[in-house]
Amino acid sequence: MNIYIKTLSLFVSELAIEWSNGEKKLLQLETIRRACPCAVCSGEKDAIGNVYMGKPVKYSNSSFEIINYELVGRYGVRFFWKDNHHDGIYTFSLLFSLKND
Question: For site-directed labelling of 45, which of 11, 35, 56, 66 has its Cα 20 to 30 A away?
Fold first, then answer.
């Protein structure tokens, strides 16, 4: 997928993204956090496809608050959550595919 983020705007409980194809999306921060792709939150596959998970994540109100973010290369974004979680790198294609519940 050759799509990239044109603009990113952070609000109290939502993130607005304008994509290079002109599409605009407003995502709830809770939706983004629950889709965290890090090994602890989403598991990690071994060479034969077995998925290993950490302990279930216990969310609090601060789990759904972003205090900062950074672009990672030309492919993703790392969010720094108020509960000190910051391990997941959200690829542009992952963010583009997310939908609010």
Answer: 66
